[in-house]
Amino acid sequence: MTKAGIFTKLIAASFLLAGAAVAPAAEAGLDLIIRNGTVYDGTGSAPRRADIGIGGGRILFVGAAGDREAKTEIDARGLTVAPGFVDPHSHVLESVTGVEGPFLAPQILAQGITTSSIGADGFRSPDELRTLFAALKAKGSSTNHFCYVGHNGVRKAVMGHEKRAATEAEMDRMKALVREGMAMGCVGLSAGLMYDPGMFSPREEIVALAREVKPFDGTFDSHSRDPVKQFLASELETAEIGIAAGIPAKLGHLKAVGLSNKGKSADLVARIDALRAQGHDIVADIYPYDGAQTNRLANILVFPGQPPIRPSQSLDSVIAALRTTLADPAAKAALRDATNNGYRGGFSWVKAVGYDSIRIVDAPGQPDLVGKYLSLMAEAKGEDPFDTMVDLLLNAKGTIIITAGAMVEEDVQRLLVQPWDMISSDGSYIGKGSVYQAAPHPRSSGSFARVLGHYSRDLKLFPLAEAIRKMTSLPARHLRLYDRGEIAVGKAADIAIFDPAAVADKADYVHPERLAVGMKHVLVGGIAVWRDGAPTGATPGAFIARQPSDR
Fold first, then answer.
1. SUPFAM superfamilies under this entry (predicted)?
2. Which of 218, 272, 396, 452 has a CA 20 to 30 Å removed from the CA of 175?
3. CB hemisphere CA count around 258 (13 angstroms)
């Protein structure tokens, strides 16, 4: 072991001991006892008062500890003890290469998340996954990670950004890369059919690639192709691809986006229920917010022939380029077309979600703009929404932030309560080194705590046992991570201990970096990684490969 590794372990041990009752003599193999907690096992069963014994990173007993002794103890009296939460759709760990030092990610630890995905939305090829895994291993991570092999990633590796269907030879190469990813231990194939280059892929291409994961007992997950203009058809396409490939399918970060789709979540629920009644393994994940991607309004612009506006690009430079472009009628027309339709048919946020899905969530110095949709503002003025957007940018008193994917609360709640809909964050890392710096979303810091506090405890949409099931056994079983997601003998000792009366999200669209509250202890492999509002510095996180279903 390197000196750095020894140092990390010493730090982990010191933090584990801090604040814990140390027994004079420990039972052989028993490292930790959690006493007096209200245990929710993750299956949705009623809670029970129980103690938990941990040794070698595994749960050794659940019941009355009696006079058993361990090296350390945690008194969980008055607290909820649950399996560590599994985030099935996250982008937080993708920033590891830009973050200095160990990857501790307080924003996810404060929510009780112990395992997160890499490669959602189809973004990562096997080589890109290996780069991230190497960085996480070298720097150390407080949490675990698993992976999807990404359709967009393998397509770019084989075809670049070609705007056409793949040839037979290209398909063979992509299939080989999918198999390579599955052999690495990925849980399945992910796709991002709204994004370039996935948007140029016919369904048959995705089905053929999805069939390559079947021998590995893999799954399929996808960002829908056209979530606004073809809401039902696009969401059901994910299910249909899974059915055609003979594998389970998950609708990624499910939502009814845009004013035009208000209420249509009921139709989608009925369709998914019907497919499940026929025996098809169709599930979804959801984050508990009424807005999707957050961004600067200026970043919605697409300048023809130029790279997309970078998160780090100064707002002044974007506005200066806009003014120059508007001075030339032909250039203005080209800017309008590229922003509305994508440059040469490529990606644009307006093309993807439409103006009736773009809502202002922050406008410094102009509070009257907050909550307004660009489409309704344009309608009130009797003008084109592009012109409304340009006028807002030229007369802004500060950086206007929007959500490119607004939805109504009624639809959020209807989807949230479905028993087949698990909780996710779709979050990105917030802090120095993040690859998503322009306008972070509060879901990154608050999703799981928001469900536990706001939706379960306060609104009583579902009992706490069901909220925890949606965060633990439901995603773990779907993802073939069978030794996670439950408190049971033999399972990994990934555990979240929180105050059910205090757990809450604090992040919002103006302050997305605010950490959730109420999480007292978080253990990964039996090692404390979070205590009393801060990371302990321990980095026991590791890559978790897909596991055999008979385990």
1. Composite domain of metallo-dependent hydrolases (SSF51338), Metallo-dependent hydrolases (SSF51556)
2. 272
3. 19
Angle separating helix axes 126-139 and 168-183, nearest 10 degrees? 20
The three-point CA angle 190-487-472 to 5° equals 25
Average pLDDT over every residue of 307-320: 89
Residue in the structure block whose two tokens are 């990610």: 105
Domain with residues 85-290+407-535, CATH architecture: Alpha-Beta Barrel (3.20)
Spell out the domain ranges in the chain. 85-290+407-535, 293-406
Closest CA to 75 of 106, 110, 38: 38
Beta-sheet pairing, 113-118 with 85-87: parallel
Closest residue by Cα to residue 212 from 252, 185, 182, 253: 182
Which among 62, 69, 55, 85 has a CA at the least distance from the CA of 24?
A: 69
Cβ atoms of 238 and 252 closer than 8 Å: yes
pLDDT in tens, 436-483: 656 789 999 999 999 999 999 999 999 999 999 999 999 999 999 999
3-state per-residue secondary structure call for 377-445 = HHHHHCCCHHHHHHHHHHCCCCCCEEEEEECCHHHHHHHHCCCCEEECCCCECCCCCCCCCCCCCCHHH
510 three-state secondary structure:
coil
List the Cα angle 428/512/360 in 5-degree steps: 100
How, if at all, do strands 144-147 and 113-118 pair? parallel
Q: Strands 58-63 and 48-55: what pairing?
A: antiparallel
pLDDT tens by residue, 186-205 = 999 999 999 999 999 999 99
What residues have CB less than 8 Å from 274, skipping those under 6 apart? none
Are the C-beta atoms of 50 and 37 separated by less than 8 Å? yes
Evaluate the omega torsion of the peptide bond into residue 197 and state whether it is cis, within 30 degrees of 0: yes
**HSE of 527, CA atoms in CB hemisphere, 13 A:** 25
Q: What is the pLDDT of residue 432?
A: 85
For the four alpha carbons of 169, 170, 173 and 174, in that order, the dihedral sign comes to: negative
- Going by pLDDT thresholds of 50, 70 and 90, the confidence category of residue 28 is low
- Give every CB contact of residue 368 below 8 A, 6+ residues apart in sequence: none
pTM for the whole structure: 0.91
Specify whether the CB–CB gap between 230 and 261 falls below 8 A.
no
**Residues shown for the chain:** 551
CB 444 within 8 A of CB 327: no
H or E element in which residue 447 lies:
helix 443-450
H or E stretch at 364:
none
